[in-house]
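Take a careful look at the sequence and tokenised backbone pasted below. I need to know what the token row says about the fold.
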Amino acid sequence: MSQILRQKQRSRLAAEINLGRSGTGHGGQLSICLVSPSRYRTGMSSLGFQTVHALLSESEGIRCERAFLPDRDELEEYRRSGTALLSLESQRPLADFDVIAFSTSFEPDYLNIPIILKLARLPLYSAERNESDPLVIAGGAAFFINPEPVADFIDAICIGEGEDIIPPLVSALLSPVTVGRTGLLEAMSRIPGIYVPALYRPCYDGDTLLKYEALSGAPLPVSRISACLEQHPPSASRILTEDTEFGDMFLIEVSRGCPRGCRFCSSGFIYGTFRQQPCGNLVAMVDKGLEYRNKIGLVGAAVSDYADIGKLCRYIVDRGAKVSVSSLRLDRIDADMLDALLVSGHKTISLAPEGGSQRLRDLIRKNLSEAQILDACEMLISRDILNLKLYVIIGLPGETEDDLGELIRLVGEIRDRVIERARINKRLGEITLSVNPFIPKPFTPFQWCGMEAPASLERKVKLLENRLRPLSNVRLKVESLRESYLQALLSRGDRRLAPLLAEMAEGSNLKKAARHCGIDTGRYVLRTIAADECLPWSVIGTAETTMLRREYERALAAEGS
């Protein structure tokens, strides 16, 4: 076993400040290794991962440790030394734990699950594991969007939010009544929000998914669980370390979900009703956080929609601290919040018009006019915030070259305002246009849409490059089209992708792995799905399908008018 790896784990652990109960500091009859299928710096930046770790660590009878996808140099050492993947806290091989629990927020991390199982020297497919192997469970936002691409690797999947799922899950894991692996999984399947893939059989007609069949009395569909935030303390940083994306911050979740319901975005649909933490609870958590950090990061899919956002930001700066927010809504820029960001030293503000033209903003139900965009930019520029980052989507259904022309014109108008202010202040400003391809997401009105073909997207990117190049102080940043295509594949895929992911874990690229496995990735990514076709993620229950379809048809009707 590599002493280099052991020492690196110990050094990493020594650099942490643990505000909760240590994963190894109390006896527990059941050992769980919580695994982030991303590297330590990214995994420990996730408030969801930290919250699940806290919930497990504070459960009686549980001894919870952590593990991460190794950094590149660590990976080389694992392979050179033949060491099995180790936990962080006790440097114990993952195969020695009773349970391995993946916490995954983003679909691209699915690629790392087979890599981690291989490093842990465990059978990749759940059907190949036996009573002596750890139970492999999973949860996180990616799984309650679409768990199917990795369903064959996982024994049980949590569909929903940890605050309400983890307590009954822990009770089932600790129950002396259930006998054997099969009995335990059948018992877990009866817990609302627990999906046991082996108890659901997908039925196909050629390439088309027809339906799912539930076995052994498993519920179909599986319900998605949403927690009542008021009944739980706010999710917040529990382990602090400089080695994260937000190492100088104490993170606090202010709300969950989004009230907007934009037609392309899953955040407005998968989290249920938009929920907000009471301001008093957040103030108390701010006071705790300021004992350790002088900067508070406010987290949520719709932070600027939080009712008391200005009051909360003002409280933080009045305490002599700094504040950062994870997102800003153009029509909800609170003056107190903006002043707090200025006091906190923010030089760049990110905004998300999303649609480049008014027609596209209406199509995606952004409910945002060009006048509101320009007014918001004017408000920021008047306060000498001259660096603006604008997030837009290309490849939305029905997008034309005229829509791109409208986007370029809008960027030009914002640029003119920045330059005018910069001349007065004699200080340069910059606009960064961050372009992301449209990716159809499950549980949104656009889930039936196909993604635009890569060649067509490449032409649009070239058009933007050519048209924006003459504009000084404007920088174009484009998300990788290859990675976006892969994300769309994982978002819309079913269980037949498992061999492809296994092949990629061995080092093959997507094209080579798809060819070897005989998989037409374009059928998953580019195809418009028929209204009556069974969707891979329909194994997860939702009462919203009719509403989603109605919104989709409204969008198409508006696009065609």
Q: What stands out?
A: The chain has two domains: 3-214, 348-561. The first strand starts at residue 17 and ends at 18. The two ends are 66 Å apart (CA to CA).
